Amino acid sequence: MGKRLVVIGNGIAGIATVDEVLRLDPDMQISIFGKERHFGYNRVLLSEVLAGKMGIDSIYLKNRDWYEKNNIDLHLGMKVVGIDTQNKKITAEDGSAISYDSLLVATGSSSYIPPIKGVEKEGVFPFRNIEDTEGILNGARDSIYEGKIVASVVYDPEGIMEKVRMSKKAIVIGGGLLGLEAARALSLHGVEVTIAHIMDRLMEQYLDETASHMLKKELERMGIRVLLNHEAAQILGYPRVRGVSFSDGGIYDADLVVIAAGIRPNIEFARRSGIKVNKGILVNDHMETSVKDIYSVGECAEHRDRTYGLVAPIMEQAKVAAGAICGSGGASYEGSIPASILKVMGISLMSIGDFSDQSADIEEIVYKDESASVYKKVLVRKDRVTGAILLGDVNDGPRILRLVKEGIDVSSMRTRILFGDQASGTATMSEADLVCRCLGITKGMIVKAIEEHGITSLNGVAKHTKACTSCRGCSSLIEQILQEALGGDYSVEPKDPPLCSCINLSQVELRDKIIEKGLKSVKDVLINFATAPGCEKCKPAISYLLNEVWIDGYEEDRSARFINDRVHANIQKDGGFSVIPRIPGGVVTSEELRKIADVADRYAVPMVKITGGQRISLFGVKKEQLPAIWSDLGMRSGHAYTKAVRTCKTCVGTQFCRFGLADSISLGVAMESRFQGLATPAKIKIGVSGCPRNCAEATIKDIGVVGIQDGWEVYVGGNGGNRVRSADLLVSVKSGDDAIRVSGLFLQYYREDGRFGERTSSFVERVGMEKIKETLFKDSLKNVRLGERLDLSLAVLKDPWEEGSKPVAVRQFEELGVYEG
Amino acid sequence: MKDKMIKAGKISDIPEGEGRVFRSGRNEIAVFRLAAEIQGSSGQGSQGSRIPSNPRILEPSSIVVAIDNRCPHHAGPLADGIVSGDLVICPLHGHKFNLKTGESTGDEGKIKTYPVFVDGEEVFMENDLIS
Ligand code: SRM
Ligand SMILES: Cc1cc2nc3c(=O)[nH]c(=O)nc-3n(C[C@H](O)[C@H](O)[C@H](O)COP(=O)(O)OP(=O)(O)OC[C@H]3O[C@@H](n4cnc5c(N)ncnc54)[C@H](O)[C@@H]3O)c2cc1C
Ligand code: SF4
Ligand code: FES
User: Fold this and answer.
1) Which ligand neighbours the alpha carbon of A609 most closely?
2) With an 8 Å Cβ cutoff, is A604 touching chain B?
3) Residue A446: in which H helix or E strand, if any?
4) Is the ipTM of this complex over 0.85?
5) What is the 3-state secondary structure (H, E, C) of A740-753?
6) In chain B, what residues touch A530 (CB-CB under 8 Å)?
7) pLDDT tens digits, residue range A691-727?
8) Among all ligands shown, which has an atom nearest to the Cα of A15?
C-alpha cells in the first residue's frame, strides 16, 4: 500500500496539489477533508455565478467520478479541528481521527468581517463561497420582490411607496477586486449599487491614483455609485437591513449589503497545533511548514513574508509541494509576482507586481488617453520592470508580465515597453509567456496542445489545457494563438456567446450551419456540432431554430422540448397544468363563458381565474384531463405556456369610450388573430390602446399600438415583468393594416435575429432602434424577404390543441401504466 | 428471486429520450428510454435488450431506466424533464439527476433507481422493489 496523504481543504490549492501528487505517485492513498459540503469548485467563478452568467453546476472542478476513480477518501462538510503532530494524526469535528504520513494544510481564507455594528442582520453577506453567493442572489431577488408587494398598497399620500418600490438598493463594503466584481454583478441584476470604500482610491493594492480615478469614472458610467473615504459604522434596520450609516454621519439606504473587505488566512487550528504561523502558515521554499511532513499551500500559506490571494501562485506552489510530498522534489518555490485582472464586463484592467514599493529610484513610464479611457504605466527600477497597470487595453499584459518575471534589462527598449509590436499580436509572445494567468498556462503549452490534439477552437484549448476555464480573461489571446497556429483554418470566434456548453457556436453561427448543411432534426444538429449530449438549454433552442428556418419541413422532436411544449399547457408547482384558451383582444362571447364554466364544473377544476392578460385560466388541471378539456372547450390554445405570440390586450376605444381616437378593439382582435401562436425567441405580448391614455398598457408590451388623431403609433421592445421597460416608438402609421404589417416585419426580424430566450426589450437594446428601423424600412430586399417568410410561417401554423385527438408522441398525455399489487 | 417480475409496458410505449410514469400503489416511478445514439459517455454499451427469451436471466437494461418520479427538491415530476445524456433535468427548478445512479449533480442527494429489464419489446420491473 502507498503512503497516506491527508489534505485539509477541498479548494483550488488542495485539489491542484492532489492532481499533481496523483500524477507523480498514483499509489498514494489520499484523504481529503473539506469544511464545505461541495465537491471542489472554482471559487474564481463565483463572480460569474453572481452575475447570472454561470450556474453553480458549471463551476465544479471535480465531480464524484474523479474522487471515486482516484480512490479518494472524501469527507465533505467535515471540519478538521486539530493536528496531533507527535502521533501524526488529525482530528475532525465529529471526533474521528485519521493518521497521515504527509499532511497538507490548504485551508484557504475566510472573509474578513470588519467590526461594524449589526453585521449579523438579515440581508448582510460576505462574498466567499457558494452559500454566500446564493444568499446574495436571493437577497437581490427578495429585495425586488418586497418592493413589489409594498407597491401594491394603495394609500400613499407622500409618495413613500414610490420610494420603496425603487429601493432595490445594495451597498458593497469594500472597493477591492472582489467588491467591484460583486457590485457589477448586482448591477447586472438591475439592483442600484453603491460601493463604499474606506480608502481614498479603489483597489489601492493594485492601482495608482490616476488609474483608480479612471476606473471610478468607468464604474459610474455603468451606473454604480462609488463612495471613497467611507468607513461603514453601523448596519441599520431590523431584522433586515434598511441602510448603512458611516463614520462621517452619512446614511445610505440599502436592502442588501455585501461585505468584501478583505480576507484572513484560516490558520487557527494550525497555530493551536504548534505549527509556526505569522499572517499565514509559515512555509519554506519546498512548501514545508515548521513541522516535519506537514506542508501548506494556497491562501493560508505565508512564504517569504507574503501571502497570496490569487490562483496563479497557488498553481506554482502546488507543483512544488507535490514534488516534496512524493519525495521527487528538488524544485523550489521562489515566490510569485502578483498579477490580477478585474473580471468586470466592459472594463479591461490588469495590474502586475507590487505598487507599495516607494523607493526613490523608481521611474514611471506612462501613457494616458483620458477620452479613450486608456491608461498604461510601468514602473522601472534599475532597468528592470517591477510593475505595471494597464487600463482600457490589456493586450500587452502577458509580454510585460514576462519582462517582470524574467527581470529582463529594458534599457534598450524603453520607448517600446508600453506598446509591444501591436501588429503581430501574440506572435511576439515567447513560448514561456503566460496566457492563462489563473492557471499558469503558457503560450508554449497551448501551442503544443494545438499541434498534438489538432485543436481548432477555444473550447478545445480549454478542454485539453484547462486554460481559460477560470476567469476567462485570456479568451482573446487564445483566439489569436489559434489563428497564428492554424492560419486560414481558424476564424476568430465572434463576440456572440456560444449557445451553451454543449455547442461552441453562437446561435447565429449555428443557424447558418443548419441552413448550409440542410440539417432537419435536433439529433442531426447535435451529432454534427455538439461535444456533449445536448442539454435543457440547447435542445429547445435548436428546436426553435429548426422551426424558424424550415418552417414546417423539419422533424419535430418532442424529447427536445420543455414539458410545456410537449403537452401544450403550463406546468405548475405540483406537476399539474393550467389551461388558458385564446380570447383574442379580450373580447369573449357569453357562449364561450358558458363553455368555460361547464368545463370547470365537469372536471372539478380547482380554480378559475381572470388572468393579467385579459383572459381566463383554469388552474390545477391534470395532464390526463387536457385532451378532453380542450375538446369540450372547443376553443383554440392561448399559448400561455410557450415562447410564442400570446395575448393582445385591448381597451375600449372608439366603440364605446368617450375619449377614443381609434378602434382599438377591432385592431387588437385582428392582430391577435393574425399572429397567434407564432413561435418566437421569447414570449410576445401585444397591446392596443385607443388613445394615448393607454388603458391597454401598450407601451410596456413587446409590441404596442396606440391610437392617435388620424392614425396609430407602433411601439416595440416594451416589457413588464422583472425589469420594466417602456417601448420605443418604431413608426407612426395611418391605418390599422399598416400597423399590422410593420408589427409583422418587426416580429419576423426578431424571430430570425433574436437569441433564444431574449425578450424584445433586450433584443431592441442589443440591436438598437436605428438598425431595426433601417432593416425594416430602408433595406427593401430584406424587408420584402421578412414579409414573405412571415407569411409562410403563419400559413402553416396549426392549433397545438388539435394534438388532443392526434398526439404526436406516444402516450403524450398518459402514464405508462399502473400496477395494483 | 426474479420470478416476481411484472410487466410495465412495451418499449414502444415510451418515446426515445422521454419518460413516462409507472404507478404502483402510491409509488410513482419515472421510466425513461434513453436515446440510443446521443447519450452520456458511460452509456454507449450494447442495447441490453437483445438477450433472448426469459427476463429472469437478463441484465438490467442501460437503455430503459427507472427512478423515483418525484424530485426531492419540491416534488417536481421528473418524468416530464428533459434528458441530457444520462441526466434528467427537473422541469420545475432545474435540478439534475443521473438516471443510472440516482445521484443529483448538486446538493439534492440521491434518489432511488430501479432496475428495468427488457425482453424483446416488453419492459419489466421487479415487483418487490417497486411496490
Ligand atoms: C396566469 C398569469 C398570472 C395571472 O394569474 O394572471 C401568469 C402566470 C405565469 N407567468 Fe406571467 N402570467 C400572467 C401575466 C403576466 C404579465 C401581464 C401581461 O401579460 O400583461 C406579465 C408582465 C408583462 C410582460 O411579460 O412583460 C408577466 C410576466 C411574467 C414573467 C416575467 C417576464 C419578464 O420579461 O421579466 C415571467 C417569467 C418568465 O417568463 O421567465 C412569467 C411567468 C409566468 C409563469 C408561466 C411561470 C411559469 O413558468 O410557470 C406563470 C404560470 C402560472 C401557471 O400556473 O400557469 N410571467 N406575466 C398571467 C397570464 C396572462 C395570460 O393570459 O396569458
Ligand atoms: C468571488 C471571488 C473571485 C475571485 N476571482 C479571482 C480571480 O479572478 N483571479 C484569481 O487569481 N483569484 C481570484 N479569487 C481568489 C481565489 O479564488 C483564491 O485565491 C483561491 O480560491 C484560494 O484557494 P485555496 O484553495 O487556497 O483556498 P479556498 O478556496 O478558500 O479553499 C480552502 C478550503 O478549505 C476549507 N477549509 C478551511 N478550513 C478547514 C478545516 N479546518 N477543515 C476542513 N476544511 C477546511 C474551506 O472550507 C475551503 O473550501 C477570487 C475569489 C473570490 C471569492
Ligand atoms: S404567476 Fe407570475 S408573478 Fe405569480 S407567482 Fe407565478 S411567476 Fe410569479
Ligand atoms: S422540484 Fe425538482 S428542482 Fe425543484
Assistant:
1) 1
2) no
3) helix A443-453
4) no
5) HHHHHHHHHHHHHH
6) 38
7) 999 999 999 999 999 999 999 999 999 999 888 999 9
8) 2
